[in-house]
Predict the 3D structure of the following.
Amino acid sequence: MPSSSVRLFPVPPYLRGAAESWIEHGDRTPRKPRPASSVVLVRDAPRGTETYLAYRRGESPLGKVAFPGGSLEEGDAGTSAAWYGPSPAAWAKSMGMDDPGQARRHVAAAIRELFEETGILLAGPDESTLLEANRGPEWMAARTGIASGDLSFMDLLSRRGLGLRTDLLRPLANWQTADFALRRFDTRYFAVVQPLGQEASLLDGKGSWGGWRSAAAEIAARGTTSLGDEIGLPDTTGLTLGELTVPQVELVLEKLAVARGCIAYLASRRPAQVFRPELVRTGDGGYRLAVQLGGGGEGPAQRGR
């Protein structure tokens, strides 16, 4: 049987009020989580495996600093664009889901959100070809149109003769926001290697900060405020990695930090697991997020901090 451990993570500053209210008033019915998808975009670099992180405004269930992602949308169920790769039924099985239709929506949302937030487009004219360039004003205009809801992602692909290259994604895990949070996501995480010839960039008019980060460097500096200070915004300055992110982001960074390259990271076998951080009170009267990790969890089992 795989071993398990409990890891403790900070409660982000913007969630502390909700945490205190939850404890003070006792257990209540948690808000229903919205289905979401998020993508860990990775690449190999001289300083080790890197991943793309970006700042998110407001109180996102994905964290202040997070991987590209967001809520599922109605259009993600569309079938106007071709589908290349495992069938929705095969995706449902690998994700531990019973509903192939919902699995299809999660995969489509992952590809859409990745394109919208970074410009990386996992699409091609057939099952063995991938778009080779994603730069230029027409592509940025498409991203802003999709972000505003004025343009359908599926219709964009269909008009350009492109289909979803779902075979390039790998499922990671399912994370549900802690019960006490006012905004909750039921998020399916995926991973993909940066495609050759495509570059990541912030969305015009919406992105405040984003870029490639060395996973090993971020983990080595997680006890400092270097990342938050570098971003330099009022709600990031002076915060550590654990205060800027949600537990799943830190755990993915841990795994990437020790991975022997992108391909090895994507090839790792992972059981379909569901994680939900639990709010706990600590001996000093504070609060932490407790995460029960199994042997196949995303990140090495380490002692809680």
In short: The first strand starts at residue 5 and ends at 10. The chain is about 30% helix and 25% strand.
